[in-house]
Amino acid sequence: MKPVEALNRISVIATAFCQSQVFFAACKLGVFDALDKAAISAEDVAKSVGIHPEGCRRLLAALADMGLVGREDGLYRNSEVGKFCTSASPVKLQSFSAWGNPWYQLWQFLPDALREYAPRWQQALGASANETFAALYSNPAALREFAQFMNAMSVVQALELADHFDFTPFHCVLDVAGGPGGIALELGRRFPHLRGIVMDVAPVCAVAQEYIDSGDLAGRFKTAPADMFMLPYPQGADVIILGHVLHDWGDDSSRKILQNCFETLPTGGTLLVCEKVLNSDFSSTTDTLMKDLTMLVGCESGARERTEVEYRGLVEGAGFSVAEVIRLDAPRDLVVAHKP
Asked: Can you give the pTM of this predicted structure?
C-alpha cells in the first residue's frame, strides 16, 4: 500500500466523528424539516433555521456528501434517507441525534474504560448511571425525547420481526424492559389478535401508556411498572421479548433476567431475544462493533454484544431450548427459544 492510500484511509477514520456532529447539528437546527416541502436554496434554508448563509451552504455540502440531502441546479432537498429524519416521518430517525448526548462524552474516556473494564459515567458527567437516569426520568420533556430515540430503532426492528417470525399462534406478548413500547405496539398493529404488556420502570411506562392511548391499541395493550430483576413479572403472556436488553448486562445479570423470563412463561411458551449476534470470531458489522464498545463505556462491567455460542449458553442455562437463530438485515438478529 502506498503511504497516501494509508493516509486517505486513516483520515476517514480519524474524522468520522465530524460526520456525526454534522448530523447532530442538522437535526438540532431543523434542517431536514426545512427541506421537507420542496427543493430550496441554501439561502432559504439558512433563513428558515437561523444560521449564516455561507455556513449553511457548507453544512448542506457535507450533508449531500453523506447522502442525507440531494442537490440539483443549486437547490437542495432531502434524500430518501433524509426524509426519515424529519419530524413528520412515521419513523423519526432524527431521534438518533441523541447519540450525541451523553454517549459522545462517555466515548471520550474509552481508553480508561478499556483499562478498568468499567463504565465512565462519573468521569464524563460527574454522576453515576443511576443518578443520570433518575434525572432523566424526572424530566418529562427529556424522557419523551429519549423515548423517541428508543422507538426509532424499536419500531423498525418490529417491522423486521413481523416479516420473519409468525406471531399468529400467540395470544399475548410481554415486552420486558420494553421502553415506550416500540416493538410490542408495532407488533400489535401488524397482528390484530395480539394482546400485549409493556413492562419497564414507572416513568417509562407512563410514556408507553401515552403511545397506547394515542393509537388504536387501548384495551389490547397495557403497561406494567416492574423491576426486571425481581419476580413476579406480569402474568398471561405466552411469548416474551427481550429487545436490546441482554447486551446492557454482564452474564450474571443476564442469567437473572432469563431465569425470571423462564419462571414467568407457561410450558411451551416462547422467548425472543432480539440482539445482534456476533460471528464466531467476534467480527460483525461496523455498527455492531461500535455498539459493543458503547456497552463498555456505558453499561456494567461485562455488558457486551455476544456470539451465537454465548447466547445459546445463557439462554439454555436458564432452562430454555434454543430453536433457531434468525439473522436479519437489521440492527438486531433474533434468537428463538422455547420453554420445554
From this structure: 0.94
The string of DSSP letters for 36-93 reads SSS-B-HHHHHHHHT--HHHHHHHHHHHHHTTSEEEETTEEEE-TTGGGGSTT-SS-G
- Where do runs of H (alpha helix) occur along the chain? 3-14, 16-29, 31-34, 42-49, 53-65, 103-107, 110-116, 121-125, 129-137, 140-164, 182-190, 202-214, 251-264, 286-298, 308-317
Phi, psi of 56 (to 5 degrees): -65, -40
Q: How far apart are CA 232 and CA 106, in angstroms?
A: 34
Closest by alpha carbon to 186, among 304, 274, 270, 254? 274
Q: What is the SS3 string spanning 169-206?
A: CCCEEEEECCCCCHHHHHHHHHCCCCEEEEEECHHHHH
Asked whether the beta carbons of 90 and 182 are under 8 A apart, the reply is: no
Task: List Cα–Cα distances, 217 to 103, 139, 177, 191, 211, in angstroms.
Answer: 33, 26, 19, 11, 9
> At a CB cut-off of 8 Å and minimum separation 6, what does 160 contact?
328, 329, 330, 332
Residue matched to cell numbers 455488558: 303
**Nearest one of 268, 275, 274, 255 to 338, comparing CA atoms:** 268
Contact assessment for residue 299 and residue 248, using Cβ atoms and an 8 Å cutoff: yes
Name residue 274's amino acid. Answer: C
pLDDT, tens digit (0-9, with 9 covering 90-100), for 30-63: 999 999 989 999 999 999 999 999 999 999 999 9
- Grid coordinates of 65: 456528501
Measured at the CA of 329, the angle between CA 324 and CA 332, to 5 degrees, comes to 65
- Residue 267 in contact with residue 339, Cβ under 8 Å? yes
C-alpha to C-alpha distances, 42 to 59, 72, 86, 88, nearest whole angstrom:
9, 12, 18, 21
* Mean per-residue pLDDT, 145-150: 89
Q: Measure the CA–CA gap between 19 and 22, rounded to whole angstroms.
A: 5
Return the residue matching grid coordinates 424530566.
139
DSSP assignment letter at 97: G
Q: Quote the cell numbers at residue 335.
A: 434468537
Share of the chain above pLDDT 90, in %: 91
